[in-house]
Design the sequence.
């Protein structure tokens, strides 16, 4: 029974945090930036500039964010989002990034619906991290695209 209550509590906290996105005023430098999640916590369609032009750098889930959108989400949700930077380059960097996110998820008991932001110097490697995390059951993994 305790596990059900804990899961329910986490889901309620996430809903309240997502609700806060619509209620909180963004910092001045992020005014006018479209949030990644709507007032109900549902995922918004990606900004066209967030989608990588090279199909090989895209993800299967198709969740993309601009740096400004990622910052807005981090500023709004604070510790209710996981951010990971993929070091360049190679399979080891992909493995390390996936392991870091997974360990944070397990250590803090976060739901797999918690937003994950994946940054990186190499878009292909970052996309690989997003796809692997999605394969592990994370449902809100965004590839953050630098301008």
Sequence:
């Amino acid at each position: 029974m305790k596990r059900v209550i804990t899961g329910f509590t986490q889901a309620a906290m996430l809903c309240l945090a997502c609700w806060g996105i619509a209620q909180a005023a963004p910092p001045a430098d992020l005014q006018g930036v479209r949030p990644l999640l709507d007032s109900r916590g549902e995922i918004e369609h990606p900004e066209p500039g967030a989608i990588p032009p090279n199909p090989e750098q895209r993800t299967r889930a198709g969740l993309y964010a601009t740096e400004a959108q990622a910052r807005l989400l981090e500023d709004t949700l604070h510790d209710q989002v996981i951010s990971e930077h993929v070091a360049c380059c190679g399979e080891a960097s992909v493995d390390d990034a996936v392991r870091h996110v997974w360990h944070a998820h397990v250590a803090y008991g976060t739901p797999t619906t918690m937003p994950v932001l994946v940054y990186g110097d190499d878009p292909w490697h970052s996309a690989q991290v997003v796809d692997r995390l999605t394969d592990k059951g994370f449902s809100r993994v965004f590839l953050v695209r630098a301008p």
In short: The first strand starts at residue 64 and ends at 66. Helices lie at 2-23, 67-77, 91-108, 123-135. Confidence is low (pLDDT under 50) at residues 1-6, 19-23.
